[in-house]
Structure formats: C-alpha cells, structure tokens
Amino acid sequence: MSLIDYECVRQLLQSEHPDATLVYVRGECVVLPANEVDDAHKMLVIARRDEIAARLPEGELSDQALEDLAIRLDNVARDLGD
Prior knowledge:
The chain has helices spanning 6-14, 49-53, 63-79; strands at 20-25, 28-33, 45-48. It is 38% helix and 20% strand. The chain is of the alpha+beta class and 82 residues long. The protein is built from 3 helices and 3 strands. A 3-stranded antiparallel β-sheet has the order 2-1-3.
C-alpha cells in the first residue's frame, strides 16, 4: 500500500499556495502552506512544491510523471519512520 499516491502529488502541484508543502500526518498526505507546518510536523514534511516542480519537464502533469514522482515521494515518506 502506498503512503503517497499521484493524487497527493497533483494536489501539491496544483495548490493555490505558492509555498505549498506536502506533509504526512496521521496516515495521510496533507498539502499546507509552509507557514502552517508547526514544529511538531516539520519532521513529517515530504516535499515542497518548488522542489517537485523542478523535477518535472516544463508544464508536464501527465499521469505517468505524477506516478513516477509519487513513487519517489512514497520512499521518502517510508524513510521518515527509520
């Protein structure tokens, strides 16, 4: 079972917040503005939108590109528990 799926990545990339951040909280991914990530959740940050957008070809939001990113981010989320 994936912790992060392509829909989480899509939400991050399409968020209205310029500083959107993907956080894994209580078993689900949540997209928040960076200033809303409190100290208790900073260690649960998976990625920021600007980091992810830099990995996509210009304007590419295909399902395959999102799925590839989701797999990478899922690995990041799993590593948080180590």
